[in-house]
Design goal:
- This protein has one domain: Response regulator (Rossmann fold), CATH 3.40.50.
- The chain is built from 7 helices and 5 strands; from the N terminus they run βαβαβααβαβαα.
- α1 crosses α7.
- It starts with a strand and ends in an 11-residue tail after the last helix.
- The relative contact order is 0.18.
- The model has no long low-confidence stretch (mean pLDDT 92).
């Protein structure tokens, strides 16, 4: 299962419809309660976070990488995407524990490949430099 947290209905729809089209199980996780519920009842492979979600997205990353996170949570890959000019937001996401940072355009262009790689537990190449 790949989870996603997008503030914008356009991005939520794009992620979900692309996942459905390629057969990747994908569900939203908009808040900590949803993320915890999904972790409890599914084999979660990854979380995709839109940086436009602001503090809510960072909170989800902290749940998976913070000191209270269990082994199952720490195994979840985290991909963050957003405007390429959001350098401070990307730095905060990386510091919080995100695995991959992608500019919005690259994420959009490679969305199918990103979802497939996350579904099989692989790493996703970043288009942004740390």
């Amino acid at each position: 299962m790949v989870l996603y947290c997008c503030n914008d209905l356009l991005w939520s729809t794009r992620v979900k419809s692309t996942a459905d089209a390629i057969g990747v199980p994908c569900r939203p996780a908009r808040n900590p309660e949803m993320l915890k519920a999904r972790l409890a009842d599914c084999d979660v492979k990854a979380l995709i976070v839109d940086m436009e979600t602001g503090p809510a997205g960072l909170e989800l990353i902290h749940l998976l990488r913070g000191p209270e996170a269990g082994e199952k949570a720490r195994a979840v890959r985290i991909v963050v995407f957003g405007p390429h000019v959001a350098t401070e937001a990307f730095a905060a996401a990386k510091q919080a524990g995100a695995d991959t940072l992608m500019a919005r355009g690259a994420f959009n262009h490679h969305l199918g490949k990103v979802l497939q790689e996350l579904h099989v537990g692989g790493a996703v190449a970043s288009d942004l430099h740390d």
